[in-house]
Design a protein that fits this description.
homodimer, 209 residues, alpha/beta, 9 strands
Chain lengths: 209, 209
């Protein structure tokens, strides 16, 4: 049986470039499975069911809650967001490292249920740069940008709750840092209980011979 | 000013191949400084003062203790072993990652004084392989090998106290794993307090404009 994969939660300010980094990470390395969240909010233009989110009705979401089909869920601005259990657990069991790109409340819910999960927060090099990136998209009104910065300010309160803070200066470097952190997680003592037990047993047998 | 370097403690069973791995790590990457311990035990054939250890007298060692010149020390089989402070602190301040190759008691002393230090335990793939490596040296008597295996058995009790367990299957892979773990340490939230404080301050200023 393959060794269980790592569960990695990636959060970060809107505009920090998480999406681009995730895409590059998936393209470069083949050990990752990206979990897709379920939500009751409407799809935005360009979003696809099963790609950005599973878009489900309120009733459907509540059925998922009731049948324990979500490993975590949260309600934010009148909508549900949650992580379907089946995909995450099957991928991890196959030894694949699963990435959840979710918000802070979801991240903290994951921490409670999966103490071995690694929580990573992606930040831009500076807030000036964050604003530049938000402006650079050219698609958002000043009001929306202001709202995102305010939201980032609120979110910054939770940064200390993450295990790692990764600066997204260049996509390539950020990808390498994320990959390095997640790989290192496989060597954590807490996930190597079997190896430790086997070593102790073998040493005991050998010294008793 | 350079960001503070990481303090990494590397321990492992005698025969796990730590020495070879450390040498390869130092040769491959230039961000590391290897701390040299002080000891009151006699040099073994082939050991050099200032390379394997600083060999000092009992009186000298006790002067080092008294003047707080050691960041940790321990007594083992009638001899002192300790880590000189000056080198470790100056290298870390320059942003270099410092490696201490020390035994478990020393490792636990470091943990108390440097909670941000990362503790890594290197193991062979199997105990059979450990025995093979010890035998393969061809320099040790069966009694010495037996003593080393007994010592490994005692040491295995402390494995859970380390942060990471790294298997030394091949030197190259082991080097990469160690390097990955130590690099990831730079992104730990606990060592990025300044970055977090700066982000929060910048976000506050920007949203208050």
């Amino acid at each position: 049986m393959a060794k269980q994969g790592v569960l990695a939660v990636v959060s970060g300010f809107s505009g920090a470039g998480k999406g681009t980094v995730m895409k590059a990470l998936m393209e470069k390395y083949d050990n990752y499975s990206l979990s897709i969240s379920a939500t009751t909010r409407d799809p935005r233009p360009g979003e696809e069911h099963g790609r950005e989110y599973f878009f489900v009705s309120e009733a459907e979401f509540e059925r998922m809650i009731a049948s324990d089909a979500l490993i975590e869920y949260t309600r934010y601005v009148n909508h549900y967001y949650g992580t379907p259990r089946a995909y995450v657990e099957s991928q991890m069991a196959e030894g694949r490292d699963v990435i959840l790109e979710i918000e802070i409340q979801g991240a903290l819910n994951i921490r409670k249920k999966f103490p071995e999960a690694v929580l990573i927060f992606v930040v831009p090099p500076t807030i000036e740069e964050l604003k530049r990136r938000l402006l650079g998209r050219g698609t958002e009104t000043p009001e929306v940008i202001e709202k995102r910065l305010k939201r980032a300010y609120e979110e910054s309160d939770g940064m200390e709750l993450y295990d790692y803070i990764v600066v997204n200066d260049t996509v390539d470097e950020c990808v390498e840092r994320l990959h390095g952190i997640i790989c290192a997680q496989h060597e954590k003592t807490a996930v190597n209980g079997e190896l430790i037990a086997r070593m102790k047993k073998e040493l005991k047998e050998m010294t008793e011979q």
